[in-house]
Amino acid sequence: MQEGAETINNVVFPQLIVLSLRKLIKLKAFCVDNLPFKWPSLEMVNVSNCPALEYIFEKKGTSLPFKELHLSSLEGMKHIRKSPSELLHLHNLQTVKIESCRKLKVIFPASVAQGLEQLKQLDLFDCDELEAIVAQRQEGEETIDKVMFPQLIELSPRKLINLKAFCMDNLPFKFSSLEMVKVHNCPKMKTFAASDGNQSTTELKGAAGPSN
Questions:
Q1: Is the Cβ–Cβ distance between 117 and 152 less than 8 Å?
Q2: d(Cα 210, Cα 17) in Å, to the nearest integer?
Q3: Which InterPro entries match (predicted)?
Q4: Cα separation, 72 vs 19, whole angstroms
Q5: Phi first, then psi: what are they for 208, rounded to 5°?
Q6: What pTM, to 2 d.p., does this model score?
Q7: Residue that wins the pLDDT comparison between 168 and 107
Q8: What is the mean pLDDT of residues 147-154?
Q9: Nearest residue to 132 via CA among 157, 162, 104, 167
Q10: How far, in Å, CA of 5 to CA of 162, rounded?
Q11: How far is CA 190 from CA 49, 128, 157, 175, 198, in A?
Q12: Quick one: what percent of the chain has pLDDT higher than 90?
């Protein structure tokens, strides 16, 4: 922070609709001072080919109203959020597409996954270290006993050579709107998801099983 700017405690982009960061080989963070961002009109985040970026969202509270998240070729990204244990609200998120993020081991903490009530499409491709879509429950998340994606229509995990399960804790999932599952080249995946007793993957309108 420069001299004379000490009173600035956040950064606000009130009219920003699309955030697109591409081929920025030295980009490490959105702000050197780690100030919290607010973008109340944001609808899409698209980040690709930024190899030095280790996370997308800062530790401090940030307004995250966007509907689409596209991440690709982020070789250094280990977490979507800087501090994966902190609560993150993505209640408006509808589409997630993640490709070639080779150090990413999980996509969502359990508390975040529980709040993805608007998610309609989840497309994951070529993430070598990805082990699960939903992380193991942490301290403060013990009361979470299942995860519901009521609006999810399409789920596509492909070329995820270390993917073992949908959830590390094997929590029951409910996908009441799911129509299509595409699972391809996920050789370590033995169980798609634990059933809550009300739905199984055999009821889906279209499904492709694991392929090595």
A1: no
A2: 37
A3: At4g27190-like_LRR, LRR_dom_sf, Plant_NBS-LRR
A4: 14
A5: -125, 125
A6: 0.84
A7: 107
A8: 90
A9: 167
A10: 46
A11: 32, 17, 13, 19, 21
A12: 43
